[in-house]
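Bug #77: duplicate submission created two jobs. Keeping one. Sequence:
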Amino acid sequence: MTIIEPREDLKLIDLEQPRPGFSRFISSWLMQTGGLTLLVDPGPTSTIPVLLEALENIGIRRLDWILLTHVHLDHGGGLADLLKAYPSARVLCHPRGIDHVANPERLWEVSLKNLGWIAEMYGRPDPVPRESLHFRETMEEGGVTIECHDTPGHAPHHLVFKVGDVVFAGEAAGIFLGLHARYYIRVG
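Kept job's structure:
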């Protein structure tokens, strides 16, 4: 398990997949600020045990908010399983994504059709209780302001979150992959 700490209040938790080419590919951000604990994109169902172990090792006993940039399996597929471990956590999700997270059957069917074995590797998402799902363009709590910016493109239900001086972009700008000591950038 790899945890990178770019600064004291921010950690990047690698959610390595069991296939070649999927290392340092999916990760979750953990931010602790103003007495709040925020987690951005819990990742797929298959890696929730890795995420839970990392959170335990860091000493996280409570998640206040889970910020979901979009509902694709690799970013939010494991949300229901994470909420089983942190049932009081609230989720910020795009209004267009709420139905897909509360009832993920169609999301799963489309993912299987489009991704095949990759969807199976990520794992089937379970439904998330609607009462856990919220959306506000701007939210203030404990002196912390979270801004939600609608950024359709990669997905019509994509959000970028700004928390203080940090922007969590999900896949709004694209992704980069480290390949043979070089970087490959794919625009989202």
